[in-house]
Amino acid sequence: MIIALNNKSNLNKEEFLKYQEELATVNCNSTMILCASPLNIANYNLTNCYWGAQNVSTESVGAHTGEIAASQLKSYGVKYCIVGHSERRQDQKETNEDIAKKIKNLYAEGITPILCVGETKEERESGKLNAIIKEEILVATENLTSEEKDNLIVAYEPIWSIGTGLIPTNDEIEEVFKLINSLLPTTKVLYGGSANDKNIDELKKCSLIEGYLLGGLSLKPENLKVFIEKLEN
Ligand code: 13P
Description:
With 233 residues, this protein is α/β, with parallel strands linked by helices. The protein has helices at residues 13-23, 38-41, 70-75, 86-91, 96-108, 121-125, 129-141, 146-151, 170-183, 200-203, 221-232, and strands at 2-6, 31-35, 50-53, 80-83, 112-117, 153-156, 188-192, 211-214.
């Protein structure tokens, strides 16, 4: 199992240092990945998880003010990086083509991308779910070698589920996972969206889920411990 923690734009320096001390006490048989906000990456100091990032530039190192290049992430020990999170697709208007470039840049530096895909409530209700997921995956992976496709991690995060407490049924999750698996047969697929220590008992019945991308729960190490305990036992 993979447990990826997406801190989003939370935790100032002082808060992060305290958080990291708490996270250091989390025992986990799964592969845990911490994706802190960019400024906190320089303060990573954990041995129980891999170091991750939440975003990378479409460009290489050079004259791109405010951007963080994949080679810079690598130099800080980052091994995984989220790309195409729905918050960036919405707020920064990231396109599937941008995301494809980011994935290539990450692979050039040996960093594993975690590609987020998912639909809005309206897209689901109007029958566009499969088309949206398919497009997000096919465009983002168009120029990848088969080895790069094999190593990719995909996170299915229904947009209507992020931070809302609403989660799809296991049948709904399975339907999307089957679609993703049909497009990328050997890729690991995670679920993200309001997953927590209360609903993990139900979610873990879904045998296709190979891990979780956690937002809110990532900020609560004590609840995270309960989540992991329930997931792994
Ligand atoms: P929540 O777990 O807070 O719903 O966030 C999910 C998410 O967006 C992780 O990337």
